[in-house]
Amino acid sequence: MANWRFYGRGVELAKLESMLQLRSQSRGFNAIRIVGRRGVGKTELLAEVGRRGSRDVPVIAFEIPSSGGAGQAVTDLNAEIDRKGMKDLLADMPTVDWDRDLGWRFFHIVHHLICKGAVVGLDEFHNAEHARLITPVKRLIDEFNSIGGCKPRGKLVLTGSHQQHMLRLFQADQPLYGRIDETVKLHQWPAATVLEIAREHGLLAPSSRFLTLLTAFGGHPKHWRRFVVGASEDRNLIRNFQEWSSHRVGARHSLRRSSLCYAPIRRKDTTTKRLSNWPRRTATCCYGWLRSSPEAPQRMNSL
After folding, report:
1. DSSP-assigned letter for residue 158
2. How far is CA 113 from each of CA 73, 89, 156, 193, 298, rounded to the nearest angstrom?
3. Using one digit for the tens of pLDDT, what is the confidence trace for 245-303?
4. CA distance 153 to 113
5. Distance in angstroms (rounded) separating the CA atoms of residues 109 and 98
6. CA-CA distance, 303 to 292, in Å (whole number)?
7. Coil, strand or helix at 62
């Protein structure tokens, strides 16, 4: 299996670390949201922050389960705390009426972690509605933003892959409306990051293969990672696409007509349409670059 590391996202990583104030001695509470399309690297960005964290600023991130409700969420959260060896953070947690409600238990665990200065990341937060955790999270944010209680030094980070559902949770008629302090938005990788990955993993030659990958995957981190580490379904896609590539990839009109250049979109979704056109435009520039055109690298960096 090929080695895979954290690629790109320097600007977004610096922005998130600045919001989390990982190196500040006077930290206050913030509720932060990471947004972006499915597979664009939201979870990986949060995980990278965790890898760069320290014992003084522990980062605990876990997925809210799609089934099992609040009870499963509490179990998964405790398991993640154990896995990271941070059980001592809960050693002095006040005793409460655990039988009152499982959402109440979830609230107290996260509340105590944040009071201890931890960064708590709730991934797949769109599942919180099904798990009945929206009210506990709302109360958590409201309590930390009010005067009184502990003086929080930690942060709360929310992210999820179901963007329509995530957006709906923060609309004006929803309990969490107006409770997010800052937002980090992720897009697909720029061409420079894709080229960095291709060079590092030996994917630039032959040029037809690289252009096949670029046309199929664009700047989508999830697909590049699965291909590099050996996911069979993505490699089957490339094998099926290889014949088309070897005969027609050099023609601009073929790139326009390729069904792989366009992700399924709704007619009125102009944002998705703009993103799904990215592989075609970049592939056209890359083709010129691979044919030793000296101007192409500048054109690619301008995408």
Report:
1. E
2. 15, 7, 10, 35, 47
3. 444 444 433 443 333 333 333 334 443 344 344 444 444 444 444 443 344 444 444 43
4. 10
5. 11
6. 19
7. strand
Residue 255: its pLDDT value, please? 40
Whether the pLDDT of residue 27 is over 90: the answer is no
CB 279 within 8 A of CB 224: no
Diameter of the chain measured on Cα atoms: 70
Distance separating alpha carbons of residues 67 and 231, to the nearest angstrom: 26
- pLDDT greater at residue 100 or residue 181: 181
Out of 22-26, 32-36, 186-190, least confident range: 22-26
pLDDT band at 156 (very low <50, low <70, confident <90, very high): very high
State if pTM tops 0.70.
yes
Q: Count each helix (H run) and each strand (E run) in the chain, helices first.
A: 14, 5
CATH match for 10-185 among 3.40.50.300, 3.30.1490.20, 1.10.443.10, 3.30.70.100:
3.40.50.300
Of the candidates 103, 94, 95, which has an alpha carbon nearest to the alpha carbon of residue 64? 103
Answer with the residue of higher pLDDT: 98 or 179.
179
35: three-class secondary structure by DSSP: strand
- Tell me if residue 279 falls in helix, strand or coil: helix
Residue that the structure tokens 């094998």 belong to: 239
Residue with tokens 């006040």: 94
10 Å Cβ neighbour count for 168?
A: 13
User: At 59, which helix (H) or strand (E)?
Assistant: strand 59-63
User: How far from chain centre, in Å, is Cα 266?
Assistant: 23
Angle at 122 between CA 98 and CA 50, to 5 degrees: 115
Name residue 23's amino acid: R
Per DSSP, the residues of 190-230 read PHHHHHHHHHHTT-SSSHHHHHHHHHHHTT-HHHHHHHHHT
Q: At which residue do the structure tokens 């293969």 appear?
A: 209
Sequence ranges of the domains in the chain: 10-185, 191-301
